[in-house]
Amino acid sequence: MALRDDDVVMLLDNAQLSKLAALLLHQEERLMEKIKSEPERVKYLKECNGAHDKVVSLLQDAENFNKKFEGDEKKADIAKETVDYIKYGINMSMQMIRNCSLRVTCIDKIKTHFDSLVTELAELDPENISKKRLLAKEVTKYKQCMWEYTDKCKSGSARAFSKAYSTMIKQEGIKFPDLVEKHKNQLGYEGEFEFLEDAQKLEVYNSIIEESGRASIPKSELASGGLGIAVLVVTAGLMVWDIFTAEHKIEAVLSNSLSVLSEIGAFAVQLVVEGAVTEAVAELELGVFIVSLAGFVAATVVGLLFVAVSGFLIDIIFGGGGKTAPSVEGLKFHTTKMPDGMALAFQIAHDGF
After folding, report:
1. Cβ count within 10 A of residue 336
2. What distances in angstroms separate CA 38 from CA 33, 44, 305, one per listed residue?
3. 83, 31 in Cβ contact below 8 A?
4. Confidence class of residue 5 from pLDDT cuts 50, 70 and 90?
């Protein structure tokens, strides 16, 4: 079964999601085999397999969890909402993130949150009506938010709603940290963005999403911290960076710049905090790629630029609101065009595979 809204397909059937994971693995393995260094090749093949295996394992855990509470009148609804939320998150990870290393990090976050919800539901006293309602409401909010992030992040029609906003940002020369700072102040949060609680960071990112017209995110009303908030910060962050870079034709710029390094193998990357969004310069002789933070995020998410610690680096950028460049000194990056999970999901839903 799949739910479709415009050009985004939400796969809900375990067999379809497993097929998508297998197709991504098959295509990614072929790309990784082109890496010249055997140790590097082995490392990235392991990442590809990890991205696949973690999805399959999480799907199985979710199915077992759902079956466990199927006949429980007081907990079955919460279990089903939890599984829907997890499946939306798996769709997000495989369709919106083309970098397998970053995908591993996102799936790990979702799995950690899922495990906590499993424990919470198992320990829930069904006679404690107020606590049961609170957990049900919280799980439903996670599900609603994940649906919006996944459905509206790459949808063509949804992106069109934020086109004017993205154009305005570009024309006015607004930098990403300034945009984040503006919304942080509007919400009345004090101090540096990186020191805010995760729930506050989420509200800042959601405020930008709402203002852009990209999506209508349900007010979270969730705990100030917690494992689920960490998941939503990443998904909201991905959408906000997509909004910010939408009108800069950044993928084409990155593809053109990186093409000159494609035959070098592993190369160094320099991150520029204050650089233009489209700044991307390949120094062929030096084997160095100079790119702005916005460009780095875009290149990582669309799978043009990858390194084994992609998830860790993106977490630092999202966590700092784009103000601080993580250290990439000593890291060697690779470039290729990773498979498009969104296109594959569409074909699966229409029996193309």
Report:
1. 16
2. 9, 10, 19
3. no
4. low
| 2 within 8 A of 347, measured Cβ to Cβ | no
What backbone torsions phi and psi does residue 305 show, to the nearest 5 degrees? -135, 125
- Rounded distance between C-alpha atoms, residue 68 and residue 63, angstroms: 9
Other beta carbons within 10 Å of 47: 21
Please list the alpha-helical segments (H only) found in the chain.
14-32, 38-68, 76-91, 100-123, 129-153, 156-161, 163-172, 176-186, 198-212, 227-245, 250-259, 293-301, 310-319, 341-349
Give the confidence band of 4 by pLDDT, cuts at 50, 70, 90.
Answer: low
SS3 48: helix
Q: Which of 32-36, 141-145, 296-300, 308-312 is predicted least confidently? A: 32-36
The DSSP bridge pattern shows strands 2-5 and 8-11 to be antiparallel
**Using one digit for the tens of pLDDT, what is the confidence trace for 249-289?**
888 899 999 999 988 889 999 999 988 888 899 998 889 99
Return the H-helix or E-strand segment holding 5: strand 2-5
Q: Which two tokens stand for residue 333?
A: 């990056």
User: Which residue in this structure is represented by tokens 């909201």?
Assistant: 236
Q: How many angstroms from the chain centroid is the CA of residue 79?
A: 24
Mean pLDDT over all residues of the chain?
91
Q: What are phi and psi of 12, to 5 degrees?
A: -115, -20
- Interval 3-26 mean pLDDT: 88
Q: What type of residue sits at position 12?
A: L
Model confidence over 121-131: pLDDT tens digits?
999 998 999 99
Could you say which DSSP state residue 152 is in? H
Q: How far is CA 236 from the centre of its chain?
A: 8
Whether this model's pTM surpasses 0.85: yes
Count of other CB atoms within 10 angstroms of residue 15: 11
In angstroms, rounded to a whole number, what is the distance separating the alpha carbons of residues 44 and 39?
A: 9
Longest dimension (CA), the chain: 69
**Cβ(246)–Cβ(161) under 8 Å?**
no
